[in-house]
Specification:
- With 214 residues, the protein is α+β, with helices and mostly antiparallel strands.
- 49% of the residues lie in helices and 14% in strands.
- It has eleven helices and four strands, in the order H-H-H-H-H-H-H-H-H-E-E-E-E-H-H.
- The chain has a four-stranded antiparallel sheet.
- A hairpin with a 3-residue loop joins strand 3 and strand 4.
- Helix 5 crosses helix 7 and helix 7 packs parallel to helix 11.
- It is globular.
- 34% of the residues are buried.
């Protein structure tokens, strides 16, 4: 089960937007995109989660903002309706973090926590590179290379006063992988998620994880 968590999956928020470090301005946008990827990849490799956050775009920020809202306010019906990867993130945070502490989470703290337990898409970045960069105005895509071999996987970048990474492709990849694993094990999405969140011997999940924390 640990492999599932590593696959998982990294808030109009302070989390990604407050860093005072200036993104390095390079005249060649492809070099700048490569630099953003390398900075993010190295931060993940070194497990410097807060440093990694500054290389993520507003779209990724918005995702974590929504995720935090679901953790705090979504009832059982709303959680059940979420995509399986989002359902996992909501329930695992509710199960492992005391409710009083959840109330104090901000965007940065949520990202750091999920990164620490492996929900960052780290596998898609560490030891890998990008190439075949295509730029269209303020957006770009880059193909992932593993051991110098191109993969059928693309990462999006957005120019937001510097090129930043959008993790949407990672979230989609995680979603697909979890659905395939659930199907292979012949489990419902919910049963698969509940089995997965206790893979490391943490307390059994209970009815409380389905209730809003606020």
């Amino acid at each position: 089960m640990k492999g599932v968590v590593i696959l998982l999956l990294a808030i109009v928020m302070p989390f990604l937007g407050r860093s005072q470090k200036k993104l390095l301005p390079l005249d060649d946008p492809k070099k700048a995109i490569n630099l953003s990827f390398e900075k993010y990849r190295q931060a993940l490799t070194d497990e410097k989660w807060e440093a990694a956050a500054q290389w993520l775009d507003k779209g990724t920020s918005d995702y974590y903002h929504n995720l935090l809202g679901w953790i705090r306010f979504a009832d059982s019906t709303q959680v059940q309706s979420l995509p399986v990867a989002d359902k996992f993130s909501v329930l695992v945070v509710r199960q492992r973090i005391p409710r009083g502490q959840i109330a104090t989470l901000d965007a940065r703290a949520l990202f750091v926590y999920l990164s620490q337990i492996g929900i960052t898409g780290k596998k898609q970045f560490v030891h890998n590179t990008i190439g075949n960069i295509k730029i269209n105005g303020n957006t770009a895509t880059a193909q992932l290379f593993v051991m110098s071999k191109p993969q059928p996987f693309f990462i999006q970048f957005n120019d937001e006063n510097g090129w930043k990474i959008n993790l949407g492709a990672i979230f989609t990849d995680t979603q697909t992988a979890m659905l395939q694993m659930a199907e292979k094990k012949q489990l419902s999405e919910t049963k698969f998620v509940l089995n997965t969140i206790k893979w490391d011997g943490t307390k059994e999940s209970d009815a409380a994880v389905w209730k809003p924390t606020n």
